[in-house]
Amino acid sequence: MTSSMKPVAVPDFLAAKKSGKKISMLTAYDYTWAGIVDAASIDSILVGDTLGMVVQGNKTTLPVTLDEMIYHGKMVVRATKRAMVVVDLPFLSYQVSPQQAVENAGRILKETGATAVKLEGGISQEKTIAALTNADIPVMAHVGFKPQSVRTTGVMGKIQRDEELLMQDALAAERSGAFAIVLEMISRPIAAKITEALSIPTIGIGSGPECDGQVLVLNDMLGLTDQFSPRFLKHYAQLRKAATEAIEAYNAEVKSGAYPADEHSRD
Ligand code: KIV
Known about the structure:
By secondary structure, the protein is an alpha/beta fold. It contains 11 helices and 8 strands. Strands 1-2-3-4-5-6-7-8 form an 8-stranded parallel β-barrel, surrounded by 7 helices. Helix 5 (98-112) packs across helix 6 (126-134) and helix 8 (163-175) runs parallel beside helix 9 (188-197). The longest helix is centred in the C-terminal third of the chain and has 18 residues, at 239-256. 3-methyl-2-oxobutanoic acid is lined by residues 27, 46, 48-50, 88, 142, 182, 184, 205, 215, 217. Residues 27, 46, 48-50, 88, 142, 182, 184, 205, 215, 217 line the site of 3-methyl-2-oxobutanoic acid.
Protein backbone atom coordinates (compact mmCIF):
# COMPACT_ATOMS: atom_id res chain seq x y z
CA MET A 1 0.00 0.00 0.00
CA THR A 2 1.30 3.54 -0.73
CA SER A 3 2.23 5.72 2.25
CA SER A 4 0.44 8.96 1.26
CA MET A 5 -1.11 10.91 4.17
CA LYS A 6 -4.67 10.27 2.93
CA PRO A 7 -6.54 8.14 5.49
CA VAL A 8 -6.59 4.47 4.47
CA ALA A 9 -10.10 3.36 3.50
CA VAL A 10 -11.79 0.04 2.64
CA PRO A 11 -11.26 0.43 -1.16
CA ASP A 12 -7.50 0.84 -0.51
CA PHE A 13 -7.43 -2.68 0.95
CA LEU A 14 -9.06 -4.09 -2.17
CA ALA A 15 -6.79 -2.03 -4.44
CA ALA A 16 -3.74 -3.33 -2.56
CA LYS A 17 -4.89 -6.90 -3.18
CA LYS A 18 -5.35 -6.20 -6.90
CA SER A 19 -1.97 -4.53 -7.31
CA GLY A 20 -0.09 -7.02 -5.12
CA LYS A 21 0.99 -4.39 -2.54
CA LYS A 22 1.41 -5.82 0.96
CA ILE A 23 -0.74 -4.48 3.81
CA SER A 24 0.80 -3.82 7.25
CA MET A 25 -1.30 -4.02 10.41
CA LEU A 26 -0.45 -3.84 14.12
CA THR A 27 -2.56 -3.77 17.24
CA ALA A 28 -2.64 -0.72 19.50
CA TYR A 29 -4.80 -0.06 22.52
CA ASP A 30 -4.13 3.52 23.61
CA TYR A 31 -3.38 7.06 22.43
CA THR A 32 0.41 7.04 22.88
CA TRP A 33 1.11 3.80 21.05
CA ALA A 34 -1.49 4.40 18.33
CA GLY A 35 0.22 7.73 17.57
CA ILE A 36 3.58 5.99 17.23
CA VAL A 37 2.17 3.22 15.02
CA ASP A 38 0.31 5.70 12.81
CA ALA A 39 3.34 7.97 12.41
CA ALA A 40 5.35 4.93 11.30
CA SER A 41 2.97 4.57 8.28
CA ILE A 42 1.42 1.25 9.31
CA ASP A 43 -1.66 0.84 7.08
CA SER A 44 -4.11 -0.35 9.69
CA ILE A 45 -4.41 -0.44 13.48
CA LEU A 46 -6.37 -3.24 15.11
CA VAL A 47 -7.86 -2.50 18.51
CA GLY A 48 -7.77 -6.22 19.22
CA ASP A 49 -9.53 -7.98 22.03
CA THR A 50 -6.03 -9.24 22.86
CA LEU A 51 -6.15 -6.16 25.08
CA GLY A 52 -7.86 -8.53 27.52
CA MET A 53 -4.54 -10.32 27.84
CA VAL A 54 -1.78 -7.77 27.21
CA VAL A 55 -3.46 -4.76 28.86
CA GLN A 56 -5.84 -6.32 31.40
CA GLY A 57 -3.79 -9.39 32.36
CA ASN A 58 -6.50 -12.03 31.69
CA LYS A 59 -5.60 -15.53 30.47
CA THR A 60 -7.99 -15.31 27.48
CA THR A 61 -9.83 -12.65 25.48
CA LEU A 62 -13.24 -13.83 26.75
CA PRO A 63 -13.78 -11.37 29.65
CA VAL A 64 -13.43 -8.24 27.45
CA THR A 65 -16.63 -6.20 27.23
CA LEU A 66 -18.07 -4.05 24.45
CA ASP A 67 -17.71 -0.92 26.60
CA GLU A 68 -14.02 -1.70 27.12
CA MET A 69 -13.47 -2.09 23.37
CA ILE A 70 -15.17 1.27 22.83
CA TYR A 71 -13.06 2.89 25.56
CA HIS A 72 -9.81 1.73 23.91
CA GLY A 73 -11.12 2.35 20.37
CA LYS A 74 -11.76 6.03 21.19
CA MET A 75 -8.19 6.52 22.42
CA VAL A 76 -6.71 4.90 19.32
CA VAL A 77 -8.88 6.84 16.85
CA ARG A 78 -7.97 10.13 18.60
CA ALA A 79 -4.28 9.49 17.85
CA THR A 80 -4.66 8.23 14.29
CA LYS A 81 -4.36 10.38 11.17
CA ARG A 82 -3.77 7.84 8.39
CA ALA A 83 -4.12 4.21 9.45
CA MET A 84 -7.48 2.47 9.14
CA VAL A 85 -8.72 1.63 12.63
CA VAL A 86 -10.49 -1.72 13.02
CA VAL A 87 -12.06 -2.62 16.38
CA ASP A 88 -12.72 -6.20 17.51
CA LEU A 89 -16.25 -7.23 18.42
CA PRO A 90 -15.64 -8.99 21.74
CA PHE A 91 -16.94 -12.42 22.79
CA LEU A 92 -20.76 -12.60 22.90
CA SER A 93 -21.27 -9.14 21.41
CA TYR A 94 -22.27 -10.63 18.00
CA GLN A 95 -22.81 -14.39 18.37
CA VAL A 96 -26.40 -14.09 19.71
CA SER A 97 -27.97 -12.75 16.48
CA PRO A 98 -27.25 -10.59 13.43
CA GLN A 99 -29.39 -7.88 15.04
CA GLN A 100 -27.24 -7.91 18.18
CA ALA A 101 -24.14 -7.65 15.96
CA VAL A 102 -25.50 -4.65 14.00
CA GLU A 103 -26.46 -2.84 17.21
CA ASN A 104 -23.09 -3.44 18.87
CA ALA A 105 -20.93 -2.84 15.80
CA GLY A 106 -22.99 0.31 15.18
CA ARG A 107 -22.12 1.52 18.70
CA ILE A 108 -18.43 0.87 17.98
CA LEU A 109 -18.45 2.89 14.76
CA LYS A 110 -20.58 5.72 16.16
CA GLU A 111 -18.83 6.09 19.51
CA THR A 112 -15.19 5.52 18.48
CA GLY A 113 -15.04 6.84 14.92
CA ALA A 114 -13.32 3.61 13.76
CA THR A 115 -13.76 2.48 10.15
CA ALA A 116 -14.51 -1.22 10.59
CA VAL A 117 -15.11 -4.08 13.01
CA LYS A 118 -13.55 -7.54 13.14
CA LEU A 119 -15.31 -10.72 14.18
CA GLU A 120 -14.24 -14.34 14.47
CA GLY A 121 -15.82 -16.88 12.12
CA GLY A 122 -16.61 -17.64 8.49
CA ILE A 123 -19.46 -20.08 7.78
CA SER A 124 -20.87 -19.69 11.31
CA GLN A 125 -21.06 -15.89 10.90
CA GLU A 126 -22.29 -15.67 7.29
CA LYS A 127 -25.67 -14.12 8.16
CA THR A 128 -24.06 -11.74 10.61
CA ILE A 129 -21.38 -10.52 8.19
CA ALA A 130 -24.12 -9.98 5.57
CA ALA A 131 -26.31 -8.06 8.04
CA LEU A 132 -23.36 -5.83 9.02
CA THR A 133 -22.31 -5.10 5.44
CA ASN A 134 -25.94 -4.39 4.51
CA ALA A 135 -25.91 -1.81 7.31
CA ASP A 136 -22.74 -0.26 5.78
CA ILE A 137 -20.54 -1.53 8.59
CA PRO A 138 -17.29 -2.82 7.02
CA VAL A 139 -16.32 -6.22 8.39
CA MET A 140 -12.94 -7.89 8.66
CA ALA A 141 -13.46 -11.61 9.28
CA HIS A 142 -11.04 -13.81 11.26
CA VAL A 143 -10.66 -17.53 10.57
CA GLY A 144 -8.22 -20.30 11.47
CA PHE A 145 -7.31 -20.22 15.13
CA LYS A 146 -10.09 -18.26 16.85
CA PRO A 147 -9.13 -17.15 20.38
CA GLN A 148 -12.79 -16.59 21.35
CA SER A 149 -13.46 -20.32 20.76
CA VAL A 150 -10.76 -21.46 23.17
CA ARG A 151 -13.33 -22.97 25.57
CA THR A 152 -14.48 -25.43 22.89
CA THR A 153 -11.16 -26.04 21.12
CA GLY A 154 -9.24 -26.25 24.38
CA VAL A 155 -5.82 -25.28 23.06
CA MET A 156 -4.35 -21.79 22.64
CA GLY A 157 -2.43 -21.12 19.42
CA LYS A 158 -2.70 -24.50 17.63
CA ILE A 159 -1.82 -24.52 13.90
CA GLN A 160 -4.99 -25.15 11.84
CA ARG A 161 -4.68 -27.80 9.12
CA ASP A 162 -8.22 -28.73 8.04
CA GLU A 163 -7.91 -27.40 4.47
CA GLU A 164 -11.50 -27.93 3.37
CA LEU A 165 -13.00 -26.32 6.47
CA LEU A 166 -10.61 -23.35 6.38
CA MET A 167 -11.22 -22.74 2.67
CA GLN A 168 -15.01 -22.94 3.16
CA ASP A 169 -14.80 -20.53 6.11
CA ALA A 170 -12.77 -18.03 4.10
CA LEU A 171 -15.03 -18.28 1.04
CA ALA A 172 -18.09 -17.80 3.25
CA ALA A 173 -16.59 -14.64 4.75
CA GLU A 174 -15.89 -13.24 1.29
CA ARG A 175 -19.31 -14.26 -0.08
CA SER A 176 -21.14 -12.58 2.77
CA GLY A 177 -19.35 -9.25 2.26
CA ALA A 178 -16.20 -9.11 4.42
CA PHE A 179 -13.65 -6.69 2.92
CA ALA A 180 -10.64 -8.52 4.37
CA ILE A 181 -9.91 -11.58 6.44
CA VAL A 182 -7.41 -12.40 9.17
CA LEU A 183 -5.89 -15.88 8.83
CA GLU A 184 -4.57 -16.89 12.25
CA MET A 185 -2.15 -19.80 12.59
CA ILE A 186 -3.12 -21.57 9.38
CA SER A 187 -0.49 -23.85 7.87
CA ARG A 188 1.46 -21.96 5.22
CA PRO A 189 0.38 -23.92 2.09
CA ILE A 190 -3.30 -23.70 3.05
CA ALA A 191 -3.04 -19.96 3.76
CA ALA A 192 -1.37 -19.53 0.36
CA LYS A 193 -4.22 -21.40 -1.38
CA ILE A 194 -6.86 -19.33 0.43
CA THR A 195 -5.03 -16.10 -0.50
CA GLU A 196 -4.97 -17.23 -4.14
CA ALA A 197 -8.67 -18.16 -4.11
CA LEU A 198 -10.00 -14.93 -2.58
CA SER A 199 -10.47 -11.51 -4.16
CA ILE A 200 -10.35 -9.81 -0.74
CA PRO A 201 -7.00 -9.44 1.06
CA THR A 202 -5.85 -11.96 3.64
CA ILE A 203 -3.97 -10.61 6.66
CA GLY A 204 -1.86 -13.34 8.20
CA ILE A 205 -0.65 -13.95 11.72
CA GLY A 206 1.44 -17.10 11.92
CA SER A 207 0.16 -18.10 8.47
CA GLY A 208 3.18 -17.52 6.25
CA PRO A 209 4.45 -14.91 3.78
CA GLU A 210 1.99 -15.56 0.94
CA CYS A 211 -0.80 -13.68 2.76
CA ASP A 212 -1.63 -10.24 1.34
CA GLY A 213 -0.66 -8.56 4.61
CA GLN A 214 0.56 -9.28 8.12
CA VAL A 215 -0.64 -8.40 11.60
CA LEU A 216 1.16 -8.75 14.94
CA VAL A 217 0.32 -7.82 18.50
CA LEU A 218 2.32 -4.63 19.15
CA ASN A 219 3.34 -5.56 22.69
CA ASP A 220 4.69 -8.91 21.44
CA MET A 221 6.72 -7.58 18.49
CA LEU A 222 8.23 -4.82 20.63
CA GLY A 223 9.35 -7.36 23.23
CA LEU A 224 7.16 -5.84 25.95
CA THR A 225 5.49 -9.15 26.78
CA ASP A 226 7.71 -11.90 28.14
CA GLN A 227 5.57 -15.04 28.22
CA PHE A 228 4.67 -15.45 24.55
CA SER A 229 7.15 -16.49 21.90
CA PRO A 230 5.62 -18.65 19.16
CA ARG A 231 7.79 -19.38 16.13
CA PHE A 232 6.07 -16.81 13.92
CA LEU A 233 6.80 -13.94 16.29
CA LYS A 234 9.75 -11.69 15.44
CA HIS A 235 10.93 -9.31 18.15
CA TYR A 236 11.75 -5.99 16.48
CA ALA A 237 12.87 -4.49 19.82
CA GLN A 238 13.44 -5.52 23.43
CA LEU A 239 11.42 -2.81 25.15
CA ARG A 240 10.73 -4.77 28.33
CA LYS A 241 14.47 -4.99 28.96
CA ALA A 242 15.06 -1.33 28.03
CA ALA A 243 12.17 -0.17 30.25
CA THR A 244 13.32 -2.31 33.18
CA GLU A 245 16.84 -0.90 32.93
CA ALA A 246 15.54 2.69 32.79
CA ILE A 247 13.21 2.19 35.77
CA GLU A 248 15.96 0.52 37.81
CA ALA A 249 18.32 3.42 37.03
CA TYR A 250 15.66 5.93 38.15
CA ASN A 251 15.03 3.96 41.33
CA ALA A 252 18.74 3.85 42.16
CA GLU A 253 19.21 7.58 41.47
CA VAL A 254 16.21 8.60 43.60
CA LYS A 255 17.51 6.47 46.47
CA SER A 256 21.07 7.82 46.12
CA GLY A 257 19.96 11.45 45.67
CA ALA A 258 21.58 11.68 42.20
CA TYR A 259 18.19 12.59 40.72
CA PRO A 260 17.08 15.35 40.51
CA ALA A 261 20.42 17.03 39.78
CA ASP A 262 20.91 20.80 39.55
CA GLU A 263 19.84 20.90 35.89
CA HIS A 264 16.48 19.32 36.80
CA SER A 265 15.76 21.87 39.54
CA ARG A 266 14.47 25.48 39.39
CA ASP A 267 16.15 28.20 41.42
O1 KIV B 1 -7.22 -9.50 19.05
C1 KIV B 1 -6.21 -9.44 18.33
O2 KIV B 1 -5.22 -8.75 18.63
C2 KIV B 1 -6.22 -10.21 17.10
C3 KIV B 1 -4.91 -10.35 16.37
C4 KIV B 1 -4.06 -11.35 17.06
C5 KIV B 1 -5.13 -10.69 14.95
O3 KIV B 1 -7.21 -10.72 16.71
